């Protein structure tokens, strides 16, 4: 039985070779820059994909929640870093996990630093998250008062241990000049390292966004990189220039339930609960919720003429179809959809089907 014969409803497919190639390429870039690759597993959220990463000498990982950290505990990682401003309501769980797993967290204020200093019962590392222009979260790069207050508080604790500075330049996803953002990151992290390394000689600097990690080649002395989306990539990353569509490692297999040749549309079982509702826009202003690929026993093929999902509701999707697609599509058949945002699609689907017909785990899914 081929993997296609297993599919009767929307199913997220993963191409292991493409995924491994993406990991290998980033690992090589990190090595060429004398950096440690600490991938952010918020995209794949999979122990199986973690095993693939270990084949490329990845010793530690980043996650986005304590729940995700718990999922990966006991799986052989040197350290698991929770890259989200730490939620102090989860200190009890953090104490449980840190008894048997090296954990680090992210701090952006003195209030949480004080709570951790008073309540930790096992060693926990921390990065100070720096805002160098994104504006979502983090300590302003020039706010040395806040940085030093967090550091002073940590020195009152036997368990709260400073690891370094972390920047996630999320605005690189939307900027026209990714190189300028990258140079800004390098300057900010190098300035902070030079300022504090006399007192903290072991501190490290880490940058974490996929566009700069994918598109730039020189990292100016930053110690670590922690991109996430690169393991799968998606249409957003392809549009930025981080990858090509051929580098996208996941596709949503969807059943075709109706074809309207006059309107040149195809109705699929695949909507917001499968793809999420991240959207791109066509030059004429039409919405694009994903692009069509042709499925085969070997995987998927990008058509010569582009077709895209122009609207979605909870379970429905409507494809604006090219002539090529109208000729090939059949009611009762399957099409593949490359996602706009692979992290969100994976989170919706909660599992992957590999091209050899094996189910692959996801943090939010179930065990097979």
TrEMBL record:
Keywords assigned: Lyase
Domain spans labelled D-serine dehydratase-like: 249-353
Gene Ontology process terms (BP): D-serine catabolic process
One Gene Ontology term of the molecular function aspect: D-serine ammonia-lyase activity
InterPro entries to which the protein is assigned, alphabetical: Ala_racemase_N, D-amino_acid_metab_enzyme, D-ser_dehydrat-like_dom, D-ser_dehydrat-like_sf, PLP-binding_barrel
Domain Alanine racemase N-terminal: 14-216
Signal peptide: none
Cited SUPFAM superfamilies: PLP-binding barrel (SSF51419)
Pfam families referenced in this protein's UniProt entry, alphabetically: Ala_racemase_N, D-ser_dehydrat
PANTHER family hit by this protein: D-SERINE DEHYDRATASE (PTHR28004:SF2), ZGC:162816-RELATED (PTHR28004)
Family named by the database record: Belongs to the DSD1 family.
Protein name: D-serine deaminase, pyridoxal phosphate-dependent
Organism: Belliella pelovolcani
Species classification: Bacteria, Pseudomonadati, Bacteroidota, Cytophagia, Cytophagales
């Amino acid at each position: 039985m081929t993997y296609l014969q297993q599919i009767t409803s929307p199913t997220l497919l993963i191409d292991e070779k493409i995924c491994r190639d993406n990991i290998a390429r980033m690992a090589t870039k990190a090595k060429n820059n004398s950096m440690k690759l600490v991938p952010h597993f918020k995209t794949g959220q999979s122990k199986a994909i973690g095993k693939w990463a270990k084949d490329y000498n990845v010793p530690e990982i980043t996650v986005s929640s304590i729940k995700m950290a718990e999922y990966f505990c006991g799986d052989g990682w040197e350290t698991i870093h929770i890259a989200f401003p730490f939620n102090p309501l989860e200190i009890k769980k953090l104490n449980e996990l840190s008894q048997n797993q090296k954990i680090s967290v992210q701090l952006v204020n003195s209030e949480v630093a004080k709570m951790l200093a008073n309540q930790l019962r096992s060693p926990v590392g921390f990065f100070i998250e720096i805002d160098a222009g994104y504006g979502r979260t983090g300590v302003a790069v020039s706010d040395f008062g806040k940085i030093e207050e967090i550091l002073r508080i940590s020195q009152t604790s036997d368990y709260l241990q400073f690891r370094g500075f972390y920047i996630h330049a999320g605005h690189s996803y939307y900027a026209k000049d990714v190189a300028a953002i990258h140079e800004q990151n390098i300057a900010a992290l190098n300035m902070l390292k030079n300022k504090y390394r006399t007192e903290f000689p072991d501190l490290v600097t880490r940058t974490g966004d996929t566009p700069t990690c994918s598109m730039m080649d020189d990292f100016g002395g930053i110690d670590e990189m922690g991109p996430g989306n690169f393991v799968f990539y998606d249409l957003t990353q392809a549009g930025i220039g981080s990858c090509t569509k051929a580098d996208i490692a996941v596709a949503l297999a969807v059943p075709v339930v109706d074809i309207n040749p006059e309107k040149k549309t195809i109705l699929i079982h695949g909507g917001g609960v499968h793809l999420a509702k991240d959207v791109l826009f066509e030059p004429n202003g039409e919405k694009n919720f994903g692009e069509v690929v042709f499925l085969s026993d070997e995987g998927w093929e990008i058509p010569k003429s582009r077709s895209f999902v122009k609207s979605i509701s909870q379970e429905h999707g409507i494809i604006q179809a090219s002539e090529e697609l109208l000729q090939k599509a059949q009611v009762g058949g399957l099409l593949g959809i490359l996602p706009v945002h692979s992290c969100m699609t994976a989170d919706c689907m909660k599992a992957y089907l590999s091209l050899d017909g094996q189910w692959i785990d996801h943090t939010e899914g179930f065990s097979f």
